[in-house]
């Protein structure tokens, strides 16, 4: 029995590593389908592998780092020739999610995202903070190897950083819900959920393709989804809207027509960032308030039960109350 368990552990680790690597590579290739050119460098406005990496580390532990490194290596090799910059990029793309996981654990992050502090931690530590590592290392290596001019460092760095951060903000919560929390669906609201889905599917493509710049129409849908379906509804809505907006931006249509590549990147990332922050923080705040209300209701029920026992002349343990001294 002991021998079987010792043999099983390496097999499980190998399968898990290969699965993480495959998921990372698939997400990377999916993200590379939509690219923008900033100062001669090709960047992805939404890079899903960073979200996949952070979610895997939070769910399955730091042992997933090897699968992330293998997946990052395969993604980089699929678009460039091997060299020093490849090793540095892979290292940065591996260290950044690991640092994000460590910082989130340090502050007591919960994968349920049921507290406002969890949403804030994911935004400022997991996304905006940790992804500085990958963007800085990647841009520095491009300059050091002569593939990028020094004057173009900051635009490329900013685009790289925001693309990685958007992957964490949009993809990680969806994966945490799908693989970790699995909230119970409210079947009593299926008609409302169906109606919201139909409106999102119709309105979002229109808003992202219209030349009238009506992207703001997406925000009421995010608020509706957050109020009625909390994190599940808001993040799925944000994910769909971000994908459709990214497609419109890379195609140069709708509100992104007649804009330069840098202007497209700025407008797209500003919209995706504000939308992800709205969906994540609003839904986390609503969930926290609902949990607090349930706790208060439970405490009130327990207090009523205690008062009923006392009114009946018994203590909660079923013993008679202590005798009282007569008044003199």
From TrEMBL:
It is a multi-pass membrane protein. Residues 18-290 form the MASE1 domain. The chain crosses the membrane at residues 12-32, 52-77, 84-107, 119-144, 156-181, 193-219, 231-250. Keywords: Cell membrane, Membrane, Transmembrane, Transmembrane helix. Pfam families: MASE1. It comes from the Bacteria. It is found in: Cell membrane. GO terms for cellular component: plasma membrane. InterPro entries: MASE1. This is MASE1 domain-containing protein. It comes from Streptomyces griseoviridis. The lineage of its organism: Bacteria, Bacillati, Actinomycetota, Actinomycetes, Kitasatosporales.
